[in-house]
Amino acid sequence: MRKMVDTSAHTEQMEWKKVLKCLEKMLYEYPLLKISLENERELEQEGLSNLLPSITSSYEHRTSKGYSEYQSSTEKYALLRAAKQMKLRQVERALEVLNMEEKAIIEEKYFNPMRHFDSYIYDKLGFSKSTYQRLKKSALKKLAVALNIM
Questions:
Q1: Where would I find the H helices in 46-128?
Q2: Looking at residue 50, what is its pLDDT?
Q3: Pick from 138, 134, 127, 58: which is nearest to 98 by CA?
Q4: For the chain, give me the number of helices (H) and strands (E)?
Q5: Which residues touch 146 (CB under 8 Å, ≥6 apart)?
Q6: What is the pTM of this model?
Q7: Where are the beta strands (DSSP E) in 32-85?
Q8: Are the beta carbons of 72 and 58 closer than 8 angstroms?
Q9: What is the DSSP string of 15-27?
């Protein structure tokens, strides 16, 4: 019986590590996505959208092995941009479920380009190490659920 409980706890811990890896990747990418979309908007507003793939249709004849394999650079760009916008909105909505303390921890840990150690962050925010760890874990679990990772 004891071994079965240990195995279950170990499996749960391994699953959490996978969830955490995926979630942290998403959180670290968030500021980059935001900047990327802001830069695209700025180019369009300044009339420099010609630096981006064309949004107009191309009617030249192309051969491909199948319809599903064909995508123009315009289509690829549009799909990539839509995916970026969707990820950005999902993270922003997920952040709304956090309380002020949890949000401050996530912003400082994952959105700050300096990538500080946890000890620096909990000192800066005025938390004890145990309170910081508890709040951080709570925030990450909420975000994992809100982002359908867990």
A1: 73-95, 100-106, 118-125
A2: 60
A3: 138
A4: 5, 0
A5: 93, 94, 97
A6: 0.75
A7: none
A8: yes
A9: HHHHHHHHHHHHH
Largest CA distance in the chain: 69
pLDDT one-digit tens code per residue, 45-91: 877 666 555 544 444 555 555 555 556 777 777 788 888 899 999 99
- pLDDT at site 105: 98
Q: Collect contacts of 109-117 with beta carbons under 8 A, ≥24 apart.
A: 109/27, 109/136, 110/24, 110/27, 110/28, 110/30, 111/27, 111/30, 111/31, 113/31
Three-state SS at 115: coil
Which tokens belong to 144? Answer: 């994992």
Q: Which two tokens stand for residue 49?
A: 């959208």
